[in-house]
Amino acid sequence: MSGYETRLAEMGITLPDAPAPAANYVPFVVVGDIVYVSGQISSDASGLITGKLGAELTTEEGAAAARTCAIGLLAQLKAACGGNLDRLVRVVKLTGFVNSTADYTEQPKVVNGASDFLVEALGEAGRHSRSAVSAGSLPMGVAVEIEGIFQIA
């Protein structure tokens, strides 16, 4: 188990197998020492986490959904690194899409669910630049989708 995976285990997290893409795209692309991970949608053991922030879901529920996206990003990153998550140098950038009503303004607090998790799990390597964007809808009605850019060794 890698050092990062040991830390995740201490947090009670086991990375799932990286999910296969749902359409005509690849889950990640490696260019030199940069890994671009396709958007990961909010889901847990019960299935998809769906709903609209500002209507059916609270900001706290949205942050929990964003956390699941971050776990999915790390699962994809591990696959991109041939199973060795310790190749991670740093998280470079996240772009978070929040399924929200037109008047909802707490998208950054929702995406904090992913950002806070990555810093807790990865320490300084988890600090990143970020965008948090409102979306009128997301695939399959999910609450959150997050894509990531990572530097690896």
Reconstruct the topology from this structure.
Layout: H1 3-10, E1 28-31, E2 34-41, E3 43-44, E4 47-48, H2 59-80, E5 88-99, H3 107-122, E6 129-135, E7 144-152
Parallel strand pairs: 5-6
Antiparallel strand pairs: 1-2, 2-7, 3-4, 5-7
Explain how this protein is built:
The protein is built from three helices and seven strands, in the order αββββαβαββ. 30% of the residues lie in helices and 29% in strands. It has a five-stranded mixed beta sheet with strand order 1-2-7-5-6. A two-stranded antiparallel sheet has the order 3-4. α2 packs across α3. With 153 residues, it is an alpha+beta fold. It has a single domain (3-13, 27-152), classed as RutC-like (60s Ribosomal Protein L30, Chain: A, 2-Layer Sandwich), CATH 3.30.1330. It has helices at 3-10, 59-80, 107-122, and strands spanning 28-31, 34-41, 43-44, 47-48, 88-99, 129-135, 144-152. The longest helix has 22 residues, at 59-80.
Architecture in CATH? 2-Layer Sandwich
Order of helical and strand elements: HEEEEHEHEE
For this structure, the CATH topology is 60s Ribosomal Protein L30, Chain: A
Number of domains: 1
Number of strands: 7
User: What does the largest sheet look like?
Assistant: 5 strands, mixed
Helical content stands at 25-40%
End-to-end gap: 18 Å
What's the number of helices? 3
- Can you give the mean pLDDT? 96
Shape: globular
Task: Give me some keywords for this one.
alpha+beta; two-stranded antiparallel sheet; five-stranded mixed sheet; 153 residues; 60s Ribosomal Protein L30, Chain: A
